[in-house]
Design a protein that fits this description.
- With 141 residues, the chain is an alpha/beta fold.
- The chain has one domain.
- 41% of the residues lie in helices and 13% in strands.
- The protein contains six helices and four strands; from the N terminus they run ββαβαααβαα.
- Strands 1-4-2-3 form a four-stranded parallel β-sheet, covered by helices on one side.
- The protein starts with a strand and ends with a helix.
- About 9% of the residues have low confidence.
Length: 141
């Protein structure tokens, strides 16, 4: 499975394969033609609350990851994650597109790690969260 990350503002290329935007908001100043997005998976994006929190607290990467994985356990996000997993499973190259200027810490990185560590479509958030029990405990907090 070939998962690649790329800022949506970078030019599309034939080697990108299937391009999937994983942000909740459409990138500012970019047309649909220029973005060359095949799928816009809004349900995989962090909530506005979490996105704004991380923007104000960039040193809180580990907390962001934990909260984001918890959000991916929702029904809508799980369905979108399964769709993304099927795309990647088809042995195609999938390019996860994001608009963030932070290329080292963003939601697409978490998604890539999650997809690469999951051998089958996840029922919650895959092995990265060590199963449903860990998710339940995290949701209680």
């Amino acid at each position: 499975m070939g998962i690649v990350l790329k800022r949506v503002y970078e030019a599309a290329s034939a080697s990108d394969g299937v391009r999937a935007l994983v942000d909740r908001l459409w990138p500012r100043g970019l047309t649909k033609e220029d973005a060359a997005v095949k799928f816009w998976l809004r349900d995989l994006a962090p909530s506005d609350e979490l996105r704004n929190w991380f923007h104000a607290n960039p040193e809180g990467w580990n907390q962001f990851r934990k909260r984001y994985l918890k959000e991916l356990a929702t029904e809508e996000a799980s369905a979108a994650l399964e769709k993304l997993h099927h795309l990647a499973e088809a042995k195609r190259r999938v390019t996860l597109l994001y608009a963030s200027r932070n290329v080292e810490r963003n939601n697409a990185i978490v998604l890539k790690e999650l997809l690469e560590g999951t051998p089958k479509p996840p029922s919650s958030v895959g092995r990265a969260a060590a199963g449903r029990e860990r998710i339940r405990k995290a949701q209680k907090k």
